[in-house]
Amino acid sequence: MDFSFTDDQLSIQSMARDFARKRIAPVAAELDQKGEFPLDNIREMGQLGLMGIEVPEQYGGAGMDSISYVLAMIEIAAADCAHSTIMSVNNTLYCNGLLKFASEEQKQKYVRPIASGQAIGAFALTEPQSGSDATAMRCRAVKQGDGSYVVNGKKSWITSGPVARYILLFAMTDPDKHARGISAFMIDTARAGFHRGKTEPKLGIRASATCEIEFEDYHVPAADVIGEEGHGFRIAMGVLDAGRIGIASQAVGLARAAYEATLDYARERKAFGQAIGSFQMIQAKIADMKCKLEAAYWLTLRAAFAKQQAEQGAAGGRFSTEAAVAKLTASEAAMWITHQAVQVHGGMGYSKEMPLERYFRDAKITEIYEGTSEIQRLVIARNETGLR
Prior knowledge:
Blueprint: H1 7-34, H2 39-47, H3 66-79, H4 81-101, H5 104-110, H6 112-115, E1 121-124, E2 140-143, E3 149-159, E4 166-172, E5 182-188, E6 194-199, E7 210-220, E8 225-226, H7 232-268, E9 270-271, E10 274-275, H8 280-311, H9 320-345, H10 356-365, H11 373-385
Parallel strand pairs: 1-4
Antiparallel strand pairs: 2-3, 3-7, 4-5, 5-8, 6-7, 9-10
C-alpha cells in the first residue's frame, strides 16, 4: 500500500497553500464580519484551476484527480471555510454532475465558464419544506408540447445563489412517481422568471453567499434538460456522494487550522509559571485532537481513492459508504476540535480578535449541509445491513 502523493498532487497542494496564505487568510476575518462574497479571489482561483480541479482541460479545468482535489480543498479551508464552500459547490455539486450526465454541447456551454472562474455555479435541491427528504419537493417543471418545460416553485439554502450565473436545478416532473418523477435542468439566471431572495444571515461561512430562489413561469428549453426525464434523483444522489468528500476535506482543513493554533498557544501561553501545554489536561486534549484529525484526514483520502476506483469501473461504481464515513467522521471531528480549541484558548478563544471563534462557527455547518450527520449514519447503516 503506497501512501505517497504524485508530483502533480503535491504541486497543486503547494499552489493552493500558497494562495490561501497570501490571498485568503489576510482578508478572511473582514469578509466574515461583512458577509462579503470574495468574488476577486474566486475568479483568481478559477484561473489557477481550483474551481474545476477534476474537470478535463477541454472544458476549462485542471484535469487532475480526486486526491488532488482533497489536498487543495484542505489548504483553502484551513485559511477560510467560506472560500472552500464556494470551491466545493463549483467542483463537486455543479461541475461533477454535469461531467457525468450532461451532453457534450451542455458541457462546453455550462462547465467551461464555471471551471475557469469566469462565472459562478450553484446546485438547487433543497426547498423550504424538504431538506433531507428531497423527494418531498414541490418545485414543478411541466413539459410543453415542444419538449421544453415551465418551472414554478422555490428552492432554499442555495450556496452562491445570490451571485450564480448558472444553476443545476432539480424539479418534480411527475409527482405520482415520487423519486422517479424528479428531473434535472440547467438554469440560466439571466432569463425571465428567475428571482433571488434575500441573502441568508448565517452563523458561519458568512462570506459564502446563500439565498432562496424562486421560479415564476420560468421557461427551460429542451436543450437544457440534463440526462433523461425522471433521472434527476439518481443524478442528485450521485453528485452528493462526491460532494460529501468535498465537505469532509473542508472539515479536515478547518480542524487542522484550529489544531495548529492550539498547539502554538499551548507552547506560548504561561500559567502558574509554565507553558499550559505541559499540563496533563491540555496534553490530553491535544492528543485527542490529533487522533481525530488524523482519522478524518485519512478517511477522506480513502473516500477520494474509492471515488477514483469507482469511476474506473471498480467497486461496482459506487463509493457512497466511503464518502458518508469520511463526511461524518470529519465534520464531527471539526466540531469537536474547534470546541476544544476555544476551550484551550479560554477568553481569547471567545474573542473575535483571534480566528478560533470563526472556526467554531464555521465548523457547525459541516455537520448539516450535503447530508446531516443523522443522514450519514442512515446511509452507512443501510449500506452495511442491506436493510431499508
